[in-house]
């Protein structure tokens, strides 16, 4: 049945789709951390809709929030409402600065709005971004994103960007990775007209790359010294995924702007920019969008924040994340012959596969994704070279499904030909 549905979809929808090329299944139902396809195969979900369904599919508390709101209304645009102010209050309490919020619709939309706010407030134009970054691939965000398929669409609409290497220690081009990169950043900030430094605290699509300690702190100092704003993109790393509500908290910094999407709406499109109150002198209606602050998303967003707080989710992500990282390392050491790197924070774990000379083992990873799927685990890739498997399970995954998934990972790895 899956094959039939896939064929019909392929017939009608664009051939430029991505995920069905990896997951040749049609979904019937999803619950918690499992997915059931139309042929009744059951899969362990380590994908969570690209790190979106953080609290598990159809989490009962999220379902309740949705149902309650759906009985009231689900669209209006900006007009004051309790669901709106209740969400705003809950969200602002999670941030470590006095924030104002601008709602957007997607992750890329939030990044575009953040760039506008930074440029307006500084009167400067350039944005400093990083190699391997992913901030969206709309016309406005393409220039800040390193993503080979999108690179075909040059020249970008927004070319006012300087790109610097990210401290990717496994493949770092520098000896003293962190300090050399920070000094590169400082050089650019000093010599150019930089409105904002746009950074993922842990790179997502780029390969689940965790920078060394001191990176965000260093960027904060440079931004302060030269009058640039620090824009932290928490679209993938936020909402508890790294074991803190916001990944920037691991570095104890205060950002100027934060972009938030994915997990905050659990799949109901909700995104936003949180920015410091003193950046709030903005032109009226400078950023619009019909669906901003959709009430269903707002109801879910508030329930999500409350759930994370009341169910000890952050502590769980830290301890189970540490355990999973250790296990991935052991499994790789015991079973993989090439060079590899296991890295991560919380439930954002990347396993990078290379040959002995560190050439990316992209085909091997493609085979692993298919092998994992065939054996009941949904896991997806990342990285510029498509050679990183990423663990991004729902933060609520039952321990048994984590353990079973790790067993399957080991079995599939053992059987894969390198
Ligand atoms: N920033 C980051 C860090 C992301 O991971 C993504 C999506 N993968 C985006 C921005 C873009 O979000 P969206 O796909 O909702 O436009």
From TrEMBL:
Keywords: Amino-acid biosynthesis, Aminotransferase, Lysine biosynthesis, Pyridoxal phosphate, Transferase. CDD domains: OAT_like. InterPro entries: Aminotrans_3 (IPR005814), Class-III_PLP-dep_AT (IPR050103), PyrdxlP-dep_Trfase (IPR015424), PyrdxlP-dep_Trfase_major (IPR015421), PyrdxlP-dep_Trfase_small (IPR015422). This is Aminotransferase class III-fold pyridoxal phosphate-dependent enzyme. One of its GO terms (molecular function) is transaminase activity. Its cofactor is pyridoxal 5'-phosphate. It comes from the Archaea. The keyword Transferase applies.
């Amino acid at each position: 049945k899956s094959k039939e549905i896939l064929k019909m979809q392929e017939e009608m929808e664009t051939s430029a789709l991505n995920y069905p090329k990896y997951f040749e299944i049609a979904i019937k139902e999803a619950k918690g951390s499992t997915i059931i396809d139309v042929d009744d195969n059951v899969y362990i979900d380590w994908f969570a809709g690209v790190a979106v369904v953080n609290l598990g599919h159809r989490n009962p508390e999220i379902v309740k929030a949705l149902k309650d709101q759906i009985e009231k209304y689900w669209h209006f645009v900006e007009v004051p409402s309790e669901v709106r102010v209740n969400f705003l209050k809950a969200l602002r309490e999670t941030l470590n600065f006095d924030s104002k919020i601008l709602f957007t619709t997607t992750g890329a939309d939030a990044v575009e709005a953040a760039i506008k706010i930074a440029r307006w407030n500084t009167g400067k134009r350039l944005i400093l971004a990083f190699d391997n970054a992913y901030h969206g691939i709309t016309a406005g965000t393409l220039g800040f994103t390193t993503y080979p398929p999108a690179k075909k669409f040059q020249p970008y609409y927004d070319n006012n960007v300087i790109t610097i290497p990210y401290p990717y220690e496994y493949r770092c081009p520098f000896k003293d990775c962190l300090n050399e990169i920070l000094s590169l950043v400082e050089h650019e900030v000093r010599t150019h007209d930089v409105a904002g430094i746009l950074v993922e605290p842990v790179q997502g699509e780029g390969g689940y790359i965790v920078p060394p300690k001191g990176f965000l702190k260093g960027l904060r100092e440079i931004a302060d010294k030269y009058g640039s704003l620090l824009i932290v993109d928490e679209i993938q790393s936020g909402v508890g995924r790294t074991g803190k509500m916001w990944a920037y908290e691991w570095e104890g910094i205060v950002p100027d702007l934060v972009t938030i999407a994915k997990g905050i709406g659990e799949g109901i499109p909700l995104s936003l920019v949180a920015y410091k109150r003193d950046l709030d002198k903005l032109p009226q209606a400078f950023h619009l969008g019909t669906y901003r602050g959709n009430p269903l998303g707002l109801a879910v967003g508030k329930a999500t924040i409350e759930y994370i707080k009341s169910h000890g989710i952050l502590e769980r992500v830290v301890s189970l994340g540490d355990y999973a990282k250790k296990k991935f390392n052991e499994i790789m050491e015991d079973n993989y012959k090439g060079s590899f790197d296991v890295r991560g924070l919380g439930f954002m774990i990347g396993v990078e596969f290379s040959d002995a000379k560190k050439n990316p083992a992209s085909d091997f990873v493609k085979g692993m994704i298919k092998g994992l799927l065939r054996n009941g685990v949904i896991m997806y890739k990342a990285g510029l070279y498509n050679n990183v498997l990423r663990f991004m399970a729902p933060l609520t995954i039952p321990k048994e499904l984590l353990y079973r998934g790790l067993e399957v990972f080991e079995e599939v790895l053992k059987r894969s030909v390198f």
